[in-house]
Amino acid sequence: MYSLYLDSQGDDAQRLPDIARRWRLEHSETSPFSLGFEQGRLCLRLREEPKTGAISVDLASGAAAHRRKFGGGRGQAIAKAVGLKGGVTPLVVDGTAGLGRDSFVLASLGCRVIMVERHPVVAALLEDGLRRACEDSEIGGWVSQRLSLAPGNSIDSLSAIEDEVEVVYLDPMYPHRAKSALVKKEMRVFQQLVGSDEDADALLVPALALAQKRVVVKRPDYAEHLDGREPTMAIETKKNRFDVYVKAALS
């Protein structure tokens, strides 16, 4: 069980007991985090820092909608990293789904994406964002077909997936040095909630075993390679890089 303050005062609060049972969450009066509904969204807050703002998953509007419409389509680095070219749209497992942003980008480009998230609070936020996206009149049709959530520890979950997965995508938590206030806020909250992915190196072997074509690891530009293993190639952006392990080149 994971303990946090379950705020039953907001709208849609009647959903909280079911969410708590499903994700094994329990109420704690002393937790630094609160979880509750605000304007129809499941939101996470730091109780002692109300000005920090709430964290929720929004796939239908805001930054996600802007990137979907104006983000560069298949010309984006992430699209190149997973091998989107021509009519190729691989089945992708996002082994560290987090708030689902990269999964959503890949789904918007045509991929079917299975999202794996091991932290119960983050998974609950992700599930709520996915629910609302599926209900959206503009994107709900393809979101419901292409995005699914499979909660669990990626190290264990990857070996249990029976689908013929072509690409495994990993973006483990890493100490960020971003200057953006928004990124700072989210990363600070997430570091406190989730901690660092100290077992991230152990993800690479099961990911390579599952992926038929490639494993893609997103890293900050200053980070070392996952598990110290040199990738087949790297696609670099301004702040990040995508280390690509192509199975054909590794065999």
Structure write-up:
The strands form two sheets. A seven-stranded mixed β-sheet has the order 7-6-5-8-9-11-10, sandwiched between helices. It has helices at residues 16-23, 62-70, 77-82, 101-108, 120-135, 140-146, 154-160, 181-194, 204-210, 247-250, and strands at residues 2-6, 25-27, 33-38, 41-46, 91-94, 112-115, 147-149, 167-170, 214-220, 233-236, 240-246. The mean pLDDT is 85. The protein has ten helices and eleven strands. With 251 residues, it is α/β, with parallel strands linked by helices. α5 crosses α6.
Outline of this structure?
This protein is of the alpha/beta class and 251 residues long. It has helices at 16-23, 62-70, 77-82, 101-108, 120-135, 140-146, 154-160, 181-194, 204-210, 247-250; strands spanning 2-6, 25-27, 33-38, 41-46, 91-94, 112-115, 147-149, 167-170, 214-220, 233-236, 240-246.
